[in-house]
Design a protein that fits this description.
Blueprint: H1 5-24, E1 28-30, E2 35-38, E3 41-46, E4 51-60, E5 65-77, E6 82-85, E7 94-97, E8 108-110, E9 114-123, E10 131-142, E11 151-153, E12 158-167, E13 177-184, E14 188-192, E15 195-201, E16 206-214, E17 223-230, E18 235-239, E19 250-252, E20 267-269, E21 275-284, E22 292-301, H2 303-331
Parallel strand pairs: 1-11, 3-12, 15-22
Antiparallel strand pairs: 2-4, 4-9, 5-6, 5-8, 5-10, 7-9, 10-12, 13-16, 14-15, 16-19, 16-20, 17-18, 17-21, 21-22
Organism: Candidatus Roizmanbacteria bacterium RIFOXYD1_FULL_38_12
Signal peptide: 1-30
Transmembrane segments: 305-323
Length: 332
Amino acid sequence: MKINKNTIQTCFSFLLLTTFYFLLTTTTYAQQVTLSISPPIVETLVKPGKSMLIGYTIQNLADPTAIIVKVRSFSPRGDYGEMLIDTELISPVRFSLDNTNIQLEQPILMKQRDTTQALVRIRIPEGTPEGDYYFTVLAETQPIAAIGGATASLAKASIGSTLLITVTKSGFVETKGRIALFDIIPNFTMKLFGKTYKIIESSSKVPVVLIVQNLGKNLIKPQGEVTLRNSWGEKTIFPLLSQNILSDSKRLVKSTEGVNTNPFHSFTISGYFIGPYTLSSRVHFGTDNTQLYATTSFIGVPIRFGIALLFILIISTIIIVGLKKRNSSTIT
């Protein structure tokens, strides 16, 4: 068989290009990033003109990486504890590091399983307005040159610790709030004689929503409970989980009891509900005698049981009518 000259040249060119590719291409690897920072949250009261020192422990649990430590202000958003972190530090509060080997926003190399401590100095200048100031202390990875000429995928990650500072001259804090929403999510509603009734199918779970709004200039921690009562006097109490609600914001308040799988519900009540039920909430803030109350109600109706019973009655009626017709035909 005669081999074409062009075919030989094509094969040679392909082998040459393949050789150059394997010789000149550098290795690529994916960098793993796992950081931890503690404490995860710090709450403190400070007078104007004072300073304080907080130690943060940062640990790198994955590949060697460079990190920077920085502080950013944030503001609360939404009803579920979200926050919006500012791109720059916007605050009269001043921050620096007391470390000799670390500076704010300057990269340091951390080996695998390496631990470092950032000593954050906080200064409250004289004349700083009283109120709350919210920050997050961030440890953020930075790109580093790969080892041995390898090209690393520059994975970037950050982890933060929440810092809540209350500036007050007298030590007094303002706790002022209201119940913005307290209700259940029914299966359906029914209007009768100008009144709306919430209906729950007897075997369904009852989602409860409790949102508390902070009307003051300092963070609050609602405490209290939600009580479920039926028509014959039995009651079940669901204690509220004490959570921070930042100034001028609202937040969904969870319970330490019940089911909390849905992030948009405070909790869910399980059971078999028949007849009228009343839910009442009591909220206080622990610093004074102010009590906030709200109530809602629903009716448990065995809809599924009723449908099943109706189906059985219809089938039974059909069978009985059929048997009667057969008997009549036989007698005739």
